[in-house]
Amino acid sequence: MKLNKIAQIVGANDSNVPSVEINWLLTDSRSLSFPVESLFFAIHTARNNGHNYIAELYQQNLRYFVVSEMHPEFEKMTDAVFLKVEDSLKALQALAVAHRNAFDIPVIGITGSNGKTVVKEWLYQLLHTDYVITRSPRSYNSQIGVPLSVWALSESTQLGIFEAGISEPHEMKRLQPIIRPTIGIFTNLGDAHQENFSGLKQKCEEKLQLFDQSEVLVYCSDNKLVEISIAQSAFKGVFFSWGKSDKATVQIVQKEKTVSSTKVVLKYNAVESSVTIPFTDDASIENALQCVAVMLYLGLKTAEIAKRILLLEAVAMRLEVKEGVRDCLIINDSYNSDLNSLSIALDFLNQQATAKKLSKTLILSDILQSGQTSDELYKTVSGLVHNKNVQRIIGIGSEISKHADIFELVDKTFFEQTEDFLKSPILRELKNEIILLKGSRTYHFEDISEKLELVTHETTLEVNLNALIDNLNYFRAKLRPETKIMCMVKAFAYGSGAVEVARTLQHHRCDYLAVAVADEGAELRREGIRIPIVVMNPEKGSFGMIFDNKLEPEIYSFRLLDAFIASAEKLGLTDYPIHIKIDSGMHRLGFEPKNMEELLTRLKNQNQVKVRSVFSHLSGSDEAKFDSFTKQQIDTFTDCADQLSGAFSHNIMRHILNSAGIERFSEYQFDMVRLGIGHYGISSLPDVKLKQVCALKTIILQIKTVKAGETVGYSRKGIVNEDKRIAIIPIGYADGFDRKLGNGGGEVLVNGKRAKVIGNVCMDLVMIDVTNVEANEGDSVEIFGDNLTISEVAGWLKTIPYEVLTSVSRRVKRVYFQE
């Protein structure tokens, strides 16, 4: 769209706006690819301000900006164009509405508590041979994500599929005109994002606003609250329901599960037919049936629907980072294969590569069903590759191979088929690289992944980086915009891997990190972490490492203070930042209130160190019975902090709240808070369900039948009173699976069913009872995660979640992923 037309749409009536072509909309300064064709919307949120990144983007040759405030430095950017509006986010949404209105095509809008992304991707799998489809990349369903998704509609688009998510009232009203679906899908209703609604009924009614102007609404009538809410809504289109009731448009007559699939008999227009869904879990069956209903509405024959449904493939909704052969890192993304998702994946590649200082390689297949000519498509792909500084591209497919000459200034190799690449010596030459696998499903890039991934211990700790940031933002929402956050990454980031966690927190603009010892901080510096790092337990022998890596020590005693001042003096350092700890009642480390006068005297009589912050630690902020003592601690700390601040002219930050403190005493947030266990999904409030960041998983190595009267494991502790099926899994106390979980003390999850531990826990193996569980060798086993929480495991062990997390051995491979 021309920039002068955009100016009119967003209400920035400036006659001097040029008529340049804008192809890319940008809301994140880190995602710039095509500066000449991009327009940046500087969005002001509670925690950040996009206007602060305009100078950085200007340096990268971006010249077009939508702003809601004018900063003095903008006046120096004489060749930049600033479209001044009242609200940049509303301007972005208004532009998306105008763009959507230019298309008279069917558009599917999807909302619900769960399953939105899977239904969207499955509809793409099922319908991409019938239509040129534009769809939301990944899970772009927010107030910003939806307009960016709809902007991708082009002249070649024949069908749009967009998802919409909300977390509070009134948000759907803004998304409805942007998507304006002609076909609506309501997936289901659950308690996700429930905290901002008075109840499920209100949330249901809010979500239903997406379909105000839809021609048809597809939904499951078995959910009575959804059924009632839809019946009472102002919806005037066609109800296309499916469910067990004979009143449903599509009646589910019978469901029959086998080991690997589910046969569903359904009746539509008084005619029975059947489909076989290649999944057995209830969520996948429900998502597949939503797709069946949509295809029936679109007029596809039942025989053709059955044929397509049988070929459904699981949706990998995450970018996984895994160790590869020859010191490579592998990012596997076979989720979306289009320009938008490629740009997102390349941003993630850059984020990982920058810190690890690895060269960047893209293995890319033909991009199918783009709606563009091949020349246009691969010219844009080449631009992305160049602007994201990819050093090597390996193209697989006939179309991308035909356009090899378009890719300039990059090491390039092309193959017609995946099999050709797998036979090539280039596969074995890849080393010290971070490799993004981005392939359409028909190219079977899982075969490439299998060759490149380092085969190690089959027990893994999956770390969900999206959940980490969602939890960070949950706590951020309780703070003033100016309050800083110090994130704890000590003890290997509570077992989840300090480097990856720190890199993600830095990327999302955390203010401070905290480690236990200097070695941990030095490792983060080596891996490219630049933000301030506090060392909570500095030792005299580590002072040199602290200075060399610009780490900031916690000072809690006169002995430590004198020693650190002396070391700084030897190096000729002045005003080196330190953080003073006050013992306000926990009686662990820290200066006591009676020490304040002497402390102030010593600090004033030197210039080697400068106090950057003063802090203390609450001992019982997570329990209401200690609230009076917590407030006493805060009063004691405030008095000491006042004395310290009053003695110096510079600003000294204050912080006392930990994770539980942020939730329960946010009025005492002072200048900064310290977030620890809250990152990883542990809340102090019983009605709050944070996202689980870590999931410990393994597989079944072997299954055997043990006869009644025999025993299992060391010391014959596992007594079998009747014939049992016993599964052996490769995890033991050397991996962090506590011996107290043996002999029925703990359980694991296999295919959604719980299985008790039988016999003693071994160093490397555990035996579980799967007599009543449908299990096979090779099946995945959840030790803890989304379905079996860390808190529950901690309860069995009579300990706390911290210990469960930090006990996971380093020999357990960490797998990081981003949705």
Approximate strand percentage? 15-25%
Q: Whole-number radius of gyration? A: 29 Å
Low-confidence stretches: none
| Class based on secondary structure composition and strand pairing | alpha/beta
Total DSSP E strands: 38
Euclidean distance between termini CA atoms: 30 Å
Catalytic activity: L-alanine = D-alanine
Protein name: Alanine racemase
Pfam family, one: Ala_racemase_N
Keywords: ATP-binding, Isomerase, Ligase, Nucleotide-binding, Pyridoxal phosphate
Overall description:
The protein has 27 helices and 38 strands. With 819 residues, the chain is α/β, with parallel strands linked by helices. It folds into five domains: 3-92, Udp-n-acetylmuramoylalanyl-d-glutamate--2,6- Diaminopimelate Ligase, Chain: A, domain 1 (3-Layer(aba) Sandwich), CATH 3.40.1390.10; 103-309, Mur-like, catalytic domain (UDP-N-acetylmuramoyl-L-alanine:D-glutamate ligase, 3-Layer(aba) Sandwich); 319-454, Mur ligase, C-terminal domain (Protein-Tyrosine Phosphatase, Chain A); 462-680, Alanine racemase (TIM Barrel, Alpha-Beta Barrel); 694-818, Lyase, Ornithine Decarboxylase, Chain A, domain 1 (Beta Barrel). The strands form six sheets. It has a twelve-stranded mixed sheet, with helices on both faces. The protein has a nine-stranded mixed sheet with strand order 6-7-5-8-9-10-11-12-13. An eight-stranded parallel sheet has the order 27-26-25-24-23-22-21-28. Helix 3 (88-100) packs parallel to helix 6, helix 4 packs across helix 9 and helix 7 crosses helix 8 (224-232).
